[in-house]
């Protein structure tokens, strides 16, 4: 078993541990058209309406209704761009980027297959080439309730005086690299200022967290003996 020191606490030290995370998939979309003058659309092929149709189709699709311990998966369009400063030119290409945060209903490969099918169908309808690039930075995972999770919760409560909620909220974490090797959860500081200028934590929390880690180690080793 493994405890990762991610900043898992929400408002107070030890009020939350993370027992799972949603996966994350980034996709870059490029629709290739043909540049031309807006007064002669028959001599051009406008990629902008095509990428708009594709994004609308993807955005309207309900990925799932949630998964035990997880919220529904969500697809978010993060940028749309044609890089066209002219007012009278049909652009040669249109680009977009999206991110999907997905629960264990899906895998990265399964979502990639779905995106490719949707793009392929629209490419066949319009005749414009649609190119997709994907990067899955982590699969969804869940450490099921059991002796390990309970031991950590008991140790935190005994040390800090509050029983942590088992949660799957937030983004990806380093736990995604360990999940395939052993049960893993995250216990750490309050993350109110993480990734901000002047990121900081109270010194007292560091000392208290050290005590909690020591109690977690002894409790887990006692209860999970081979």
Compact description:
The protein is α+β, with helices and mostly antiparallel strands. The protein contains four helices and twelve strands.
Structure overview:
The protein has about 230 residues and is α+β, with helices and mostly antiparallel strands. It folds into 2 domains: about 1-20 and about 140-225, Aminopeptidase; about 25-140, Alpha-Beta Plaits, CATH 3.30.70.360. The protein is built from 4 helices and 12 strands, in the order βββββαβββαββαββα. A 4-stranded antiparallel beta sheet has the order 6-8-4-9, with helices on one face. Strands 1-12 form a two-stranded parallel sheet. The protein has a two-stranded parallel ribbon with strand order 2-11. Helix 1 (about 50-60) packs across helix 2 (about 110-125) and helix 3 (about 145-160) crosses helix 4 (about 205-225). The longest helix has 21 residues, at about 205-225. The chain is elongated, with a radius of gyration of 23 Å. The chain starts with a strand and ends with a helix.
